[in-house]
Amino acid sequence: MANVINHPSRFLHLAISLIILIIFLIPLITFLNNNSLIFTIITKPYFSYYLTSFNNQSHQSHYPWRFSWRNTFINSLEFEGNVNYPSSSSSSNYSNDVSRAISPDFTKCGPVDLPPNAITSPYCCPTLATPFKFIDFKDYLINATYNKYKNNSSIIRVRRPAHLVDDEFIAKLEKGIAIMKSLPNDDPRNFIQQAKVHCAYCNGGYPQKHPFQDQKIDVHRSWLFFPFHRFYIYFFERILGTLIGDPSFALPYWNWDSIQGMQIPSYFTTPNSSLYHKLRHYKHMPPHLVDLNYDILSPKIRTQDQQISYNLAFMYKQMVLANTKELFMGSPYRLGDPAQPGPGSVELAPHNSIHDWLGAVDTPNHEDMGTFYTAARDPIFYAHHSNVDRLWELWTKLEGGRRDYRDDPNWLDSKFFFYDENLNLVRVKVRDCLDTKLLGYVYEEVDLPWLNVNPKPRRTKMQREAKKSSILASKPITKFPFVLDSKVSISVKRPKKLRSKEEKEQEEEVLVIEVTELQSYENVKFDVHIDDDEDMLSDENHAEFVGTFVSLPHGNHGHKSNTRFMVGISKVLENLEAEEDDHIVVTLVPMIGKGDVTIGRINIQFMSK
Question: Which Gene3D superfamilies does the record match to this protein (predicted)?
């Protein structure tokens, strides 16, 4: 080196050589980054690199060719363990040793896909600072600003039923929402900016990571539904608490699964309140009771006592009978998979049903609550989802504890990005949200009137068997696939009958309905019955009614959706005294969107509990 320094010409030659080498390496690095996973794998342990350009669609700009020696390479896949390189972009080519956790390419946010008659803009992308940077959730929990906000690390926020809060709490909630609405339009804490977060994640605003950029992320109808929404309202709650200067502030939960909470909390309907929202169903104001299995085309006319009875029976089926992780939480959704593989029970209803029930009747797609791209513009959205989050917490404790997906690293390491109360962009993982106490909140416990309802059959065993024999004798064999444009009854063979108590404790018998060519832009709903009288079908408070599939209008980038609908039937067959039957008769009843869905197959599977 000393020899080089003593001869300036040699130093100049060396410098020129290095410049030429860099000029040569830049396009090579770009090529590798865009066309191969090898570059990511080799360079990730040492430094981070990203190249971005001006995005006209999302109105975001970034510094090009910016190098970071910290491990913030967001445009890379994150591999763990021994890596086997895939030979193509097909997700089926990935080794089990390669992480397939979903993560949005946050810098590539683009316009979402909306129905043609949507009443809003397709631009839901958040404000994005340059240079792009974020903090991990574990650092967020311990950084100085967070501790300063909490003042006391022992503070646990208590989320209370919305119908039990006092005037002081209501005033705080109104103040917080009013401040959020008054913030500058480009402030990530602004109320509409917060609503756009839901729009982007739930309507394909973000692509998956390379090499699956053609796959758009949608957190609905999958195992991401519960953790995404838990984080979403968590940060919303943190922002509210900061804006009103109350570290103990917690969102209320709209306790629509209790008898006293089955109507919209009255303070959300006061016209001069920041909690009021114009785009709601005008006939569903208090004291009208919510219908947890709402049919937007043919609303049921029921007495209050009838509606309460039906709601409680429906809650039992959606919570207690959904006793496996896939039945309750939805199907696995990994890197490279198409979106919306299969929803869980509560997501379909009451979650989707209440969105429909609240949506306005004079907007094209029942905006705002009736569609995911505008739903979070209604302040009641957050009380609604607080209760959905509470039901997840309750479900994990039913029957002494139920298993979720925490044994699957692809679920645990799935990632999202949210802005916090201090305008920091925070990267979170599903594993970070599995204990609400560690997140600093709990739910006030109330009675669960649905817990032991266990609906009984409407007809006797003899009546059911006679009707079943008649249907089996008169119906032609159904050929799949078929368009569901009218009521249809199908004989489904059971793989095994007369299972022992031990077998039923280990595995749930599950009716699986493959839903194909679902029209994403339309409302779709169909109900499912087992061994019922198709000429006089049972209501929710009888065992023969086993579930409902509900889909709200949303975009799917020009494609029809494929998903599957699953219903646990072990307890149902016990109640129907049908455990020794070789076949069951499944009746599908299209309620909304007749002809807008195709049934690809119906069978019975066994799922581990």
Answer: Di-copper center containing domain from catechol oxidase
Spatial neighbors of 13 by CB under 8 A, at least 6 apart, are none
Average pLDDT, stretch 404-433? 96
List residues with catalytic annotation. 198, 220, 229, 351, 355, 372, 385
**Cα–Cα distance between 22 and 25 in angstroms, integer?**
5
Least confident segment among 16-20, 418-422, 560-564: 16-20
What is the DSSP-derived secondary structure letter of residue 481? S
User: What percent of the chain shows pLDDT beyond 70?
Assistant: 81
Tell me how far apart the alpha carbons of residues 519 and 523 are, in angstroms, rounded to a whole number.
Answer: 8
**91: DSSP letter:** G
**pLDDT computed for residue 227 by the predictor:** 99
Task: Tell whether the model's pLDDT for residue 47 goes beyond 60.
Answer: no
Residue 355 assigned ligand-binding role: yes
13 in a labelled binding site: no
Amino acid letter for position 385: H
Does 351 appear as a known binding residue?
A: yes
Q: Which pLDDT band holds residue 520 (cuts at 50, 70, 90)?
A: confident
Which comes out higher in pLDDT, residue 133 or 60? Answer: 133
pLDDT in tens, 55-76: 233 333 222 223 333 233 333 3
pTM summary value: 0.84
Out of 3.30.70.120, 3.40.50.720, 3.40.50.1000, 1.10.1280.10, which CATH number does the structure's domain 106-111+122-443 have? 1.10.1280.10
The DSSP output letter for 457 is P
How far is 268 from 379, CA to CA, in rounded Å? 8
Q: What is the CATH number of domain 461-608?
A: 2.60.120.260
DSSP string, 359-428: S-SSSTT-TTTTSTTTGGGSTHHHHHHHHHHHHHHHHTTGGG----STT-HHHHT-EEEEE-TTS-EEEE
Q: What does DSSP assign to residue 437? A: H
Q: Is 130 left (phi over 0), alpha (psi -120 to 50) or beta?
A: beta
Q: How is the chain split into domains, by residue range?
A: 2-93, 106-111+122-443, 461-608
